[in-house]
Amino acid sequence: MTDVDATREVGAVLLVTASGARHLIEVRDPDLAATVTRLPPDGDAEPGYWWAELRRPEERIALFDVGHITTDGEIAPGLVLGAPAVLYLEPLNPRASQTIRLTTPVQSITRLENRPT
Prior knowledge:
This protein is mainly β and about 120 residues long. The chain is built from no helices and 9 strands. The protein has strands spanning about 5, 10-15, 20-25, 35-40, 60-70, 75, 80, 85-90, 100-110. The protein is globular. It starts with a strand and ends in a 5-residue tail after the last strand.
C-alpha cells in the first residue's frame, strides 16, 4: 500500500517509519474519531534516524486527520510511502487545542486484517 487515508475506513493500518516507530491506526466506527497508538520499534532504525520518546506512548489517542509532507514541503491529505506523516491528534497538553506529530519518512503502510473492533 503506497497511499491511504487511514482515518475514514473501518479497520486498522500499521504505519512504520524510518525511525522504526510503529503507529497503529484504528477506525472502529466511521462516525467517531480514529485512534492511533504509537508502538515501540520492532527492529532497527534507518541510518540517520532515531527513536524519540513522546507523550503517552503505547496509549490509544484520538486521531482527527492525517497528512504527509510533499516534496515541495507542503502538507497534503493522506499517508504516502516515503513521505513524513503528519498526525493531527487530540490535545496532549491541557492548554493546547490540538497536538500535531510529524513522523520520519513512512517505510511501510499495511492494512491489518481480522483486527478485533
